[in-house]
Amino acid sequence: MSGERLIYMPLGGAGEIGMNAYVYGYGPPDRERLLVVDLGVTFGDMDGTPGIDLILPDVAWLEARRDRIEGIVVTHAHEDHVGALGLVWDRLRAPIYARKFTAAIARLKLDERGGAPESALRVVEAWPEVLELGPFRVGFVPISHSIPESAGLVIDTPQGRIVHSGDFKTDPDPVIGEPFVPAVWEEIAKGGVRALVCDSTNVFSPNPGRSEASLVDNIEALLREAKGMVVATTFASNVARLQTLANAAMAAGRSVCLLGRAMRRMVETAIDTGLLTQFPKVVSPEDASQVPRENLLLLVTGSQGERRAASAQLASQGYMGLSLKEGDTFLFSARTIPGNERPVARIMNQLSEKGVDVIDDAGGRYHVSGHANRPDLERFHDLVKPQFLIPMHGEHRHLREHMKLGEAKGLKGIVATNGMMIDLSGNAPKVAEYVETGRTYLDGGVLIGAMDGVIRDRMRMALNGHVVVTLIVDEKDEPLGEPWCEIMGLPHKGRGNSDLVEVLEAELSQFIGRAEKRTLRDDERLEKEMIRIVRQASQAEIGKKPEVTVVVSRLA
Amino acid sequence: MSGERLIYMPLGGAGEIGMNAYVYGYGPPDRERLLVVDLGVTFGDMDGTPGIDLILPDVAWLEARRDRIEGIVVTHAHEDHVGALGLVWDRLRAPIYARKFTAAIARLKLDERGGAPESALRVVEAWPEVLELGPFRVGFVPISHSIPESAGLVIDTPQGRIVHSGDFKTDPDPVIGEPFVPAVWEEIAKGGVRALVCDSTNVFSPNPGRSEASLVDNIEALLREAKGMVVATTFASNVARLQTLANAAMAAGRSVCLLGRAMRRMVETAIDTGLLTQFPKVVSPEDASQVPRENLLLLVTGSQGERRAASAQLASQGYMGLSLKEGDTFLFSARTIPGNERPVARIMNQLSEKGVDVIDDAGGRYHVSGHANRPDLERFHDLVKPQFLIPMHGEHRHLREHMKLGEAKGLKGIVATNGMMIDLSGNAPKVAEYVETGRTYLDGGVLIGAMDGVIRDRMRMALNGHVVVTLIVDEKDEPLGEPWCEIMGLPHKGRGNSDLVEVLEAELSQFIGRAEKRTLRDDERLEKEMIRIVRQASQAEIGKKPEVTVVVSRLA
């Protein structure tokens, strides 16, 4: 076995929260057989990626080694774990393994984007069943999270056992789905665990996590006491929360109506796969408008303020014939993900203008997190007793804090971020290699590299505006007419109330009038000079330097 | 007195947190004499206002009535109350009144942007001194906040007394500056208060606010126990916090070094105006690099993650010869303003990568808010006992919640947002008029209207990219050569790996080749058609519709 090694490498999800993609390998260096865990996405934002729909890990490294991939295993059906499958499967072409509900969601993702044949996606049974994938034996251990059928992975290799926690919390009573069972993990740990690769999301939350079941009474009371219509928004994938909300609605004599495609699809999938057996019959939006307001609960998408989702639309004009008014109640039964505060606040203010009472998760009464808090992580470390701790699923500060937490209890480990290939074979984990990784953007229907310059140009136009200069030069290299300017995203009037375009054109004309023949002959030089002139004149006139595109047309 | 009325109208700050600008008026309708309270700014962001440096209230309404303005009074020196003075003074040309320190900061603002003559800015003494301004008698009552010399205003009019709270908290021990003194407000309330116009910022904070003094021990302990260099960031204007940090540094045997222009300027101004008398002698950045790390405290700008501020630079390469390393400590002694989470997290992660320990205000140990919390507001209502409560300084949800809080105790009032002119003369406040208001953007060196379309165009280019099409048409209305495309902020390759520019040019050439003479003669039609073709072809090729600029050059 000497000469073989066990490696771990995150391609996404380590150094960020989102787009999870982890790789394990076993074999001789550079010939390891590979196991991919999760292929997720993250979302773009105006701040750094305007116009980008989804962001996914760059899988070039995997693609170049796709003959070595034994399989892609998916821990659970959240977008940040499953969302990139459809976008990259064609480049990897390895079989995908997941539990039933997760596989059903993965199938939707595959069909939505590019896709993979039916045979590529294989449903697996939970632990103690195991899957043989080359040198790996993989078990899917039920673990609680904010989506059903979440799995921690037990990965047995010739160099020992790895526990890959997946996203998890230590909930003994998750309402829907499987609880966290300490005895199972104790059993798993018995023969020794070489490495625990572990969720770090909530390492800064000091108190033990609360159970989903702790919300039931609060939500029921809210729905009983509310006078008008109640609207509740949460992640569609939080099937347990949907059940809790629906139970409370039934108890309070309210009919349930689902709004938003993701919401309807998730409930259907959960019913089809046998997870939701107690969900009430829902009313359609059309029928809902006939139901008295005090007998209605709308379950809607858009808890993060997404502009086109049902929440945003209800907060402005209305949605599918339903609209809100004074006396109604709107419940955010979800946490606002950092960065989404502004769009969420926009919705809250619009609701406030309508006289709708907004209730958020500020008091923790209507929402609990799906991730293990700091004491829960310590408890999990204690159960699994790994030789090495490797924090994952976190920004750098989460990973580092998680490592410090482990070290305080005597655990060895390493902070491994995207692209760091870690050799787990020795007495301590060590960096074997730094692999070039990055992000791929889905822009409309096209995948582009994060460093292609496309987004850089968009941001520059957004910050600085865009000036287009056109100039025609005739066969004798003489300018034909004057240079012409068009501006986009720039003030029309400058400081002295002069017209910006006129000022720019005057400056350019002056330059062209004086330009020597050799300049007029030289496209590159013409362009460079005209860009300089436009930027300089703009700086003087409006105090900023725009992006400039110069088009020189030569008559032949 | 019949036929005269007392009015209140926010032009900014009511329906948002930022760019405060309030107007009071007294006199016959449409001939009221006017009093302006505060002229502040808010900050742009990539999300909604890319490239915009500052946002200020549209003062067109005031400008059209500037002969009726008795004065501009400034409650305190925060940017959101004083920042627009320099940008709009020239349009209003009314005298500005402020207390000494506030006036010193206002003078800097005036000099920085446009400016006003020395004589325009007048220093006033605090209550019980009062200022006679037409029908108004205005008193500046010291009140505690997160900046020294903050004032609540007592505005006496022929129709009674108004209390304009300004930004405030009920701190009995603010370290630097004046405490909140209940007896003063009781005295002010004695003769009856017609209206309390009141800060709403922290209405959702359920517990009584804590005193600045409560931080002293925590901060001192932190500075004593830290091993390496300590960096602390807070708002430069939080002079009390700077003093607390400096005191702790002295106690811990650390020299203080100020980094960032705003930080140095604020400390200088506070010393010059006699507010800071105990501040230690600071070391220059050059000398600081000679001081042992464990004997140094850097006080730095950039607590909100501002890209060019000292915090951001220290987190990446370093700043003025100083850089951070493993074992150093970085303290965020400030709240992250909603919307700034992402840039702040970016800095925290960069620091984490360097091995720097980051301490934020999560536990409330190193920061207290400058605004009155919910119970403090109730206490203030009880002291002032107004006939009407009018919430200000808040988003709509804050104003509404504040009004509900007052109503629960039997107060009458109204939620008044920007542009709502409220008549305070009768038995209940009522809307007299809706005035058109808006936002003005400072873009580079030019002021533009929020609705001018400039920012809309920038956002569109950022989301969709920009295609520039040029076409030359000769004297006989025949196309000269082919249409030419340039793209900016768009993928170069389409779905089928074809070149986007080539595809667009081929489509355009085909159209031009077939175009009838009357189309070629008609600029408008040519433009419209070519835009349609580019957008349609782009949608097919890359799945998105770009912005398009068409330049048709006609040889005459």
TrEMBL record, chains A, B:
Domain Metallo-beta-lactamase: 18-219
Organism: Rubellimicrobium roseum
Listed name of the protein: Ribonuclease J
Domain of life: Bacteria
Keyword Repeat: no
Keyword Transport: no
PANTHER family per record: RIBONUCLEASE J
InterPro entries: Metallo-B-lactamas (IPR001279), RibonucZ/Hydroxyglut_hydro (IPR036866), RMMBL (IPR011108), RNase_J_2 (IPR042173), RNase_J_b_CASP (IPR055132), RNase_J_C (IPR041636)
Keywords: Exonuclease, Hydrolase, Metal-binding, Nuclease, RNA-binding, Zinc
One MF term in the entry's GO annotations: RNA binding
